[in-house]
Design brief:
The structure holds two protein chains of two kinds.
Chain A lengths: L3 H9 L1 H33 L9 E8 L6 H14 L3 E7 L9 E6 L8 E9 L3 H5 L3 E4 L20 E5 H8 L8 E4 L4 E8 L16 E5 L6 E8 L4 H14 L4 E8 H44 L1 H9 L4 H37 L7 H27 L11
Parallel strand pairs in A: 4-9, 6-8
Antiparallel strand pairs in A: 1-10, 1-11, 2-10, 3-4, 3-7, 5-8, 6-9, 7-8
Helix pairs in contact in A: 2-7, 2-9, 2-10, 7-10, 9-10
Chain B lengths: L1 H14 L1 H28 L11 E5 L21 E2 H7 L7 E13 L9 E8 L2 H5 L4 E4 L4 H6 L3 E4 L1 H8 L8 E6 L2 E11 L22 E4 L2 H5 L18 H6 L3 E8 L3 H20 L10 E3 L1 H7 L5 H31 L1 H9 L4 H38 L10 H27 L3 H7 L1
Parallel strand pairs in B: 4-9, 6-8
Antiparallel strand pairs in B: 1-10, 1-11, 2-10, 3-4, 3-7, 3-10, 5-8, 6-9, 7-8
Helix pairs in contact in B: 1-13, 2-11, 2-13, 2-14, 11-14, 12-15, 13-14
Classes of the chains: A alpha+beta, B alpha+beta.
Chain lengths: 402, 443
């Protein structure tokens, strides 16, 4: 099959070819970038968190009144929660991982002011903190009960020991093992690293560089609010949430249970902007491909109708059905390829603009390649129906006058 | 003549129902998608205090220290909030017509007068009394407290409508008391006012603690913060390494957690106030604070919303993409129209030969294009309504954001008709150039 007749036919109807080509180009530019953003966001959401997210819930108690005793309340609540069947472990905590809000402190590997200090997400936990979050220690041990501090309003005093994530250890000490080393807080007070968490994500989901940096401190906050992290056996979370809320509210303490929430409440909320973007981009991408495909079908059908007589004539002078079919398929392939060539340039230009104007990551080329292949396939599928109709035109039509 | 063209247009659409449907459907989808993303974008970028945009200013001072700016990726910005000591110092100025220093806090509300009700946490805004007048806050009952109440740190409280509904069943509760507790113990507060429904979206007066959160449940004088040693429920950001072991330490620290707004009615006032805050910053520099270059700002609400990037970049990207989608829909339509019109060229040739003028042909086809645009727009509004229903599911607590109002309906129709006619111009022009003789010959 020669391309020449197809090309010269296209040149005679330049406008139609340009319109379809432009459509395909824009579709490629948008879909490649949209799918790239979708994949990037989906990967972010699917990152392993290092904690036992599905079986965790969090409780906040808020004390008030002249007789409120923070330490007594914490002990009462934790004794009660830990005694419930189905609870694996429970600890105080100051924050919720992946919640997009939390506390951060500056720590340094040295007292030397020239050594860089790092801002890191911190959690006050007790001796069950490691078990309650369900994180794995790659070295060292959890806190002991004796290490857990409560110093009322005197919160600037540092703790004697800390547990840090491997990622933060790497930031502080490079490739040297972190266990047993000393870190210093902003006031120059030292603490020994007694445990290293293999992997755990911190509070802020979009801080890609530092999200794996976390420090546990053995401490109970001053109050009057206190939060607990509770880890349950699989499948027991929802029942236990209700039971814990009821039992804690019944206790005769001057405090309000302000909320009891599963960890999924926070991940859903934090990732909502990303799930939203994924959903909306998917809709746009799918509709765009569908509209382009329908446009190809519509236009090809029209051309088939217009050229009935020529097709009949060609058939009459010896073209087989498959030649007619191939003619339209090849014509579409040429159109798609031309459009895709322009679309590739558009896609990268658009990707470049998105990454500079909106600080999105730079478009990776494989998305454009896949896009071109997909458009080829979709174009061929779309044109197949009208092309088959064209192939079915009987040669006798050539002899008829309209 | 118009009705004749209209009849012809409908007839022509019926002759090719699939092509006609495709064109109308494409326009409807394109318009629907654009209107959906535009509605979200418009409401996210709405200025809820637009009527007072020219007199209100958010005040920021660069109190940050050390060698790092507040935001490493936007070094030109000072911190968005003030330290407590700076906020207190600014309150001394008598240049502004009104001014407000405030922060977010919280109490446990103990409903002692309701049997069986459990104590619950309420979000509180500790503020000076100008808050209500400055921000056009509507009252249902009672009103704001006065300067004397601020000065004496009296235990008064303004309730949100929802809180009044919950605690007092919606009746006029002015003069009644509620029990609010925290670290300080538990105290009786007198209700001095009840707000009407008030939902500024975004929550322009405090964008750094949940820009799309609801306003607080209760409002009380800022002077109670030091009196009751209240903490903040908002974000606290500190640059200095200093021990903080008491409220006094916190109040004197370099941590920022206070929002500050002024009302300046005349340009002279604006100039005078700008000079005032710059002088204040210079004075602080002499005292060894404010280590960074002078970088104080007065920003009007619209600028404030812009600087704080309330509209996420994602929303802009979506609007851009949906207009590219519309472009594809229109290219699609141009192609189909061209094919359709040219397919009917013999009929046009016949009509021309029988004496129809070029302008009559032009008008007839334009009417046909207009009908497609109008139908597409009408269905597009439906698509947008459906789209927004879907978006509402995605945006959960953003109910207020996702209403399709009259303006957006009008926008939808105009986009549809304009783009329909724009897309129709070229095919119409092409068909008008049909030479009657050439078309008739091929018959």
């Amino acid at each position: 099959m020669h391309l020449r007749p197809i090309l010269s036919a296209m040149l005679r109807n330049k406008t139609g070819a340009i319109l379809v080509g432009l459509q395909i180009a824009i579709t490629l530019a948008v879909v490649a970038n949209a799918v790239f953003i979708i994949v990037e966001r989906a990967q972010r959401i699917a990152r392993p968190s290092g904690i036992d997210s599905e079986n965790l819930f969090f409780v906040q108690s808020y004390g008030y009144g002249p007789n409120y005793d923070q330490l007594a309340t914490v002990h009462h609540d934790l004794d009660l929660i830990r005694s419930l069947p189905g609870v694996v472990a429970a600890s105080v905590t100051t924050g919720v991982p992946l919640s997009n809000s939390g506390a951060a402190q500056n720590y340094s590997a040295s007292l030397d002011p020239d050594v860089e200090d790092f801002m890191v997400n911190t959690y006050f936990v007790d001796e069950q903190g490691v078990a309650a979050f369900g994180v794995k220690l790659s070295a060292g041990r959890p806190f002991t009960e004796a290490e857990v501090q409560y110093s009322g309003e005197q919160t600037s005093e540092f703790v004697p020991s800390v547990i840090i994530t491997k990622a933060f250890g790497k930031r502080l000490f490079g490739d040297e093992p972190a266990l047993g080393r000393t870190i210093y807080d902003a006031l120059g007070q030292p603490a020994t690293i007694v445990g290293v968490i293999d992997h755990m994500l911190g509070a802020w989901i979009d801080s890609d560089e530092t999200i794996g940096d976390v420090v546990f401190l053995p401490r109970i906050s001053w109050g009057p609010d206190v939060r607990y992290v509770v880890r349950t056996e699989p499948g027991r979370r929802d029942d236990l949430m209700m039971e814990v809320e009821r039992k804690l509210s019944e206790a005769d303490l001057t405090r309000a249970i302000s909320w009891v929430r599963p960890h999924s409440y926070y991940t859903e909320r934090s990732y909502r902007a990303h799930t939203r973007m994924i959903a909306l981009l998917s809709v746009i991408a799918i509709l765009m491909v569908a509209i382009t495909a329908l446009g190809i079908v519509g236009l090809a059908s029209f051309h088939v109708n217009l050229r009935r007589k020529q097709i009949g004539t060609r058939r009459a002078v010896g073209a087989r059905r498959v030649d007619i079919l191939r003619y339209f398929m090849l014509e579409n392939w040429l159109l798609t390829t031309g459009g895709a060539a322009l679309g590739t340039i558009l896609a990268f230009a658009f990707g470049q603009w998105l990454s500079t104007a909106y600080s999105l990551p730079r478009l990776e080329p494989q998305y454009v390649v896949i896009g071109v292949v997909v458009l080829w396939i979709i174009g061929q599928v779309a044109v197949y129906v009208p092309a088959r109709r064209a192939a079915a035109i009987p040669p006798a039509i050539a002899t008829r006058t309209v | 003549m118009f009705s004749y063209h209209l009849r012809l247009a409908l007839k022509s659409l019926r002759r090719n129902p699939v092509i006609g449907g495709l064109m109308i459907g494409a326009i409807a989808l394109g318009v629907g998608l654009c209107v959906t993303t535009l509605t979200v974008f418009r409401l996210m970028s709405a200025n809820p205090i637009a009527p007072r945009n020219d007199v209100l200013y958010a005040v920021t001072l660069d109190s940050w220290g050390g060698d790092r700016p507040r935001y490493e990726d936007r070094p030109e910005l000072p911190p968005p909030e003030l330290t407590y000591r700076d906020a207190m110092a600014l309150l001394e100025s008598d240049i502004p017509t009104r001014q407000v220093a405030m922060h977010k806090s919280g109490f446990v509300l103990d409903p002692v007068h309701t049997d069986g009700a459990k104590p619950f946490l309420v979000e509180a805004r500790m503020t000076t009394n100008d808050f209500f007048a400055m921000f056009d806050v509507p009252f249902l009952y009672g009103g704001a407290w006065n300067d004397a109440t601020d000065a004496e740190a009296q235990m008064v409280v303004v309730l949100s409508k929802a809180t009044n509904d919950k605690v007092f069943g919606g009746v006029n509760s002015v003069g009644r008391t509620i029990e609010l507790g925290s670290r300080f113990g538990i105290r009786e507060f007198t209700v001095i006012g009840v707000l009407d429904e008030w939902l500024p979206t975004p929550k322009f007066y405090d964008l750094n603690n949940g820009a799309f959160d609801r306003p607080e449940d209760v409002f009380a004088p800022l002077s109670l913060t030091p009196a009751l040693l209240l903490g903040t429920h908002g974000n606290v950001n500190c640059w200095k390494d200093e021990p903080i072991d008491s409220f006094e330490d916190f109040a004197e620290s370099e941590c920022v957690w206070m929002q500050y707004w002024v009302e300046l009615s005349t340009p002279e006032q604006v100039e005078a106030y700008r000079a005032f805050i710059d002088n204040y910053a210079r004075e602080q520099k002499r005292l060894g604070r404010f280590e960074r270059p002078l970088n104080n700002h007065l920003r009007k609400p619209d600028e404030w919303l812009d600087v704080n990037a309330v509209v996420q970049d994602d929303n802009r990207v979506l609007v851009g993409l949906s207009f590219m989608f519309l472009a594809v829909c229109l290219l699609n339509m141009i192609g189909l129209l061209l094919a359709k019109f040219l397919g009917a060229a013999p009929i046009v040739g016949l009509r021309r030969a029988l004496g129809a003028s070029r302008s009559a042909i032009f008008q007839q086809h334009l009417v046909e294009v207009g009908v497609i645009g109008l139908a597409g727009g009408a269905i597009g509004i439906g698509v947008a309504a459906l789209g927004l229903l879907g978006v509402r599911r995605l945006y959960n607590n953003y109910d207020a954001l996702t209403h399709l109002d009259l303006t957006m309906g009008f926008v939808a129709l105009s986009i549809a008709v304009c783009s329909g006619i724009l897309a129709g111009l070229y095919p119409t022009w092409r068909i008008c150039r049909t030479a009657p003789a050439a078309q008739l010959k091929t018959q």
